[in-house]
Amino acid sequence: MADALVVAEGVKKNFLHMGRTLEVLRGIDLAIYHGEIVAIVGQSGAGKSTLLHCFGTLDVPTSGSLKLDGEELTGLSSSRLADIRNRHIGFVFQFHHLLPEFNAVENVMMPGMIQGRPRKELEARARALIEEVGLKDRASHRPGELSGGEQQRVALARALVLEPKLILADEPTGNLDSKTSAQIHELFFAINKQRGTTIVVVTHNLPFAASMPRVVSLKDGRVEKDERKSDVKRDIDTAAEAEVARAADEPKKSATA
Ligand SMILES: Nc1ncnc2c1ncn2[C@@H]1O[C@H](COP(=O)(O)OP(=O)(O)OP(=O)(O)O)[C@@H](O)[C@H]1O
Ligand SMILES: [Mg+2]
């Protein structure tokens, strides 16, 4: 197995609310490997968003260890966490949070503009991403002039603009109809496959989760199940390799026959 990108060991997260301690994450042990696409599922309140926020350095565990690409995140200063977040992590939320006064390309450029990256280079990259997510003809539309699915495509392109190692998505299609959701789901798979970006998606969409090679189920702040279909994939890969080898062998056989 490849190296782990995210490693959580005994991650606990408590919230203090009205003088009471709420134990939301109760000891999460989980490793996400480079290049994986993983679904996180579980009932409302199970702690999915809280875990995703910890993975994304938007929140810090109360205790336990959380590493991103080998670096321990707990105990880092908020400026160091922000730096890691900006350089390595892209977010897609249920609501796109696009800026209404900027068009699609400008919204995609925004994370780079904030970092002071050269405008020309950013614009070229943003245009390529807008095309990659299938919005070539909508590049100059503002969010109000885009459908919900198109807005979410822009949000995905924006998450990719700084070429993060990790994309964290929290119910990215929670707000979309099933056909539009399925198209966005395909886009996640395409990005994972073509770019090798590691993707963790929290979803209530069970068909989408079921189509994932790995599904982690949370219950009451713990990992209840962690199911992989990689063996199935490996079987397919092995069969495909055998087929390629057989096909390559075929002409030689007929030549020698
Ligand atoms: N800042 C906070 N302060 C107090 N309690 C919180 C805070 N954030 C989350 N919680 C509580 O933690 C629990 C888990 O919340 P979380 O948002 O992680 O759930 P979830 O699994 O993402 O649920 P959903 O599927 O509804 O989005 C909930 O009971 C919630 O009320
Ligand atoms: Mg949530």
Structural class: alpha/beta
Please tell me the CATH architecture of the domain at 4-89 and 167-256 by its name.
3-Layer(aba) Sandwich
Strand content: 25-35%
Overall 3D shape: globular
The helix-strand sequence is EEEHEEHEHHHEHEHEEH
Which sequence of strands runs across the widest sheet?
Answer: 6-7-8-3-9-10
Counting DSSP H or I runs of 4 or more residues, the number of helices is: 8
**Low-pLDDT regions:** 232-236, 251-257
- Extended strand count: 10
What does the model show?
There is one protein chain. With 257 residues, the protein is an alpha/beta fold. The protein has a domain at 4-89 and 167-256: P-loop containing nucleotide triphosphate hydrolases (Rossmann fold, 3-Layer(aba) Sandwich), CATH 3.40.50.300. Helices cover 42% and strands 26% of the residues. The chain is built from eight helices and ten strands. It has helices spanning 48-55, 78-88, 104-114, 119-132, 148-160, 178-195, 206-210, 230-256, and strands spanning 4-17, 20-33, 37-41, 63-68, 71-72, 89-92, 166-170, 198-202, 214-219, 222-228. It has a six-stranded mixed beta sheet with strand order 6-7-8-3-9-10. A hairpin with a 2-residue loop joins strand 1 and strand 2 (20-33). Helix 3 (104-114) packs across helix 4 (119-132), helix 3 runs parallel beside helix 5 (148-160) and helix 4 (119-132) crosses helix 5. The longest helix has 27 residues, at 230-256. The chain is globular, with a radius of gyration of 21 Å. Magnesium ion binds at residues 48-49, 170.
